[in-house]
Amino acid sequence: MTDGLIDLVPRTHLEGIDDAACRSFQGSLELVGRRWTGAILLAGLRGARRFGEYRASVGGGISDRLLAQRLKELELEGLIRRTVIPSTPVQIRYALSPEGEELMSVLQPLIDWSLRRLAT
Question: What is the pTM of this model?
Answer without folding.
Answer: 0.78
